[in-house]
Amino acid sequence: MGLKSAAILAWLATSYGVLMFAHVRPWEAALLAISAGLAMAGVGFSVMHDANHGGTSSSARTNAILSFTLDLIGASSYVWRNKHNVLHHTYTNISTLDPDLEGGGPFLRLADWQPRHAHHRYQHLYVWLLYGLFPLKWWFIDDFRDLLTGRIGDHQFPRARGRALFVALAGKALFVSWAVVLPVWLHASWGFLALWSLSVFVLGNVLAAVFQLAHCVEHTEFLEADGIERDWAEHQLATTMDFAPRNTFLAWYLGGLNFQVEHHLFPRVCHVHYPALSRIVEETCSAHGLRYRCERTLRGALGANFRWLKRLGSGDRSSR
Fold first, then answer.
1. Are 69 and 9 in contact (CB under 8 A)?
2. Tens-place pLDDT, residues 212-222
């Protein structure tokens, strides 16, 4: 994990450094902007995610330091731990309780209980444009609103105070400094704006798509808040799906998040163990008559998400 974290952080620093300080041709700059967006997503998947769950190291200090990488790439690790660790992991795919299902606002319909509007008929087509805008919403609207109000949706959480608030605001300041102020100072032009937008677009699509493939597909279940009859572990199995489990590169880049079942069952276990755990989980599910949800390829998972978005947009309530 130490080597992997260093490699991904070096990938981001190199892409950014060459883009900012080297003389490159336009097509090279575009490739570097894409690389920077992919590297930022990689930091989220493979560096901050385990650390914020306490799974990177047995040292709380090491986990805290690495969790701050999320602040350095624009989002608040304090808000994220409350939103993701507490709400999403506890209430996966449950109406009004899982904040990850409500992130699309009126533009995306991700579950049966959400109201359907005429424009949702096309959500499976325009969703990629929305994904590309999501980081701006996360960075500059959601985090500040949640920190200010001490609420995530309808849920209260301990408002950041003292050191926690200082760290959150310092992280925002550092991110704006390297991601906005310095580039504008060095390269103020429409070309810079295009490259910056390209990086954000890539980042948003990669991050949002990975969540969608794990939870918002035709194979997983969505439950009303008063309709839960399973225990916690069975609920995680019913609402979560693995995908492309034998794709070594994907597992490396996504920080094991294609093994989402194992992550939800064992969130404090470092993701390097998920491939081995997946075989045990699948065998245990089979022995106890429980369904283990898995799409064997990335293409299959993308297709399952596409069909789910299209079905919800059309109002088709046929069985999954």
1. yes
2. 999 999 999 99
